[in-house]
Amino acid sequence: MSVYRAARLYGIPESTLRDRTLGLQPITCSSEPLPRPGSKLSVAEEEQFVCHIKNMAEIGYGYSRSE
User: 20, 27, 43, 62: which has the fewest Cβ within 10 Å?
Assistant: First the structure.
């Protein structure tokens, strides 16, 4: 897969991905799985956000999409 296509698919800046594949920046390893393409939240942050939304809905305060 090309660097350009991978950058678009995973929502990573192309220059960052290119620098890492060329060895100009260190590759950081994490035990946390990679986020879904287009997602800006980590998996843990997304789970916390979903729980918050559910709790707020249970007490009668729902968020609109714009909020």
Answer: 27
- Which residues touch 14 (CB under 8 Å, ≥6 apart)? 3, 4, 7, 8
pLDDT at 39: 67
Q: Are residues 47 and 60 in the same domain?
A: yes
List of residues 6+ apart from 43 with CB closer than 8 A: 32, 33, 35
Q: Which residues contact 41 (CB under 8 A, 6 or more apart)?
A: 35, 49
Instruction: State whether 6 and 20 are in the same domain.
Output: yes
Name the residue range of residue 63's domain: 32-67
By C-alpha distance, which of 1, 10, 15, 6 is closest to 38? 10
Query: Are residues 4 and 23 located together in one domain of the fold?
Result: yes
